[in-house]
């Protein structure tokens, strides 16, 4: 039986899916353009602005649902967490735009050694896709793996930064340090998403293994 709140929940899921697609496109576009030496700042800015607009749309819709329908526990967790996750989406879009600004400010960086960036960006793109999918499927196992991926990005950041401080190439060192910082922050927001997905599914942001197992499909 369809409840009064169901059409609004479906609309919320649709908006969140749109935001997820735009986040994946904007971050991938920004990172790839930096490494390839192309300028996509205007396109990424447009995507970032669109994501931000949808974040406000999610806020208005969730507020409306809370006022009109007095959602039960499961729905309430989804509504509350959707607001948090949509904010994380908006931050992804902003960091993507920040990355294009680094590319615009520093210009051609083909002389730089970008091995650490290539490794970090590969992991970050994987994390974002997994975060979007885990939310769409409410798959708590995928959400848990995001935290493991984030540790890799943190390790690269901490290992690489001291070497950049000692570098003789100021331009490359500054550009790489900024990119690594933005990627590290994107990783943090992906973990924030992971915690929110855990909360929707299990009722806990950092659930125990036993609780995760009891809420995992095909057990």
TrEMBL record:
<dbReference type="InterPro" id="IPR026022">
    <property type="entry name" value="PhoU_dom"/>
</dbReference>
<dbReference type="InterPro" id="IPR038078">
    <property type="entry name" value="PhoU-like_sf"/>
</dbReference>
<dbReference type="InterPro" id="IPR028366">
    <property type="entry name" value="PhoU"/>
</dbReference>
<dbReference type="GO" id="GO:0045936">
    <property type="term" value="P:negative regulation of phosphate metabolic process"/>
</dbReference>
<feature type="domain" description="PhoU">
    <location>
        <begin position="122"/>
        <end position="194"/>
    </location>
</feature>
<feature type="domain" description="PhoU">
    <location>
        <begin position="17"/>
        <end position="100"/>
    </location>
</feature>
<protein>
    <submittedName>
        <fullName>PhoU family transcriptional regulator</fullName>
    </submittedName>
</protein>
<dbReference type="Pfam" id="PF01895">
    <property type="entry name" value="PhoU"/>
</dbReference>
<dbReference type="GO" id="GO:0030643">
    <property type="term" value="P:intracellular phosphate ion homeostasis"/>
</dbReference>
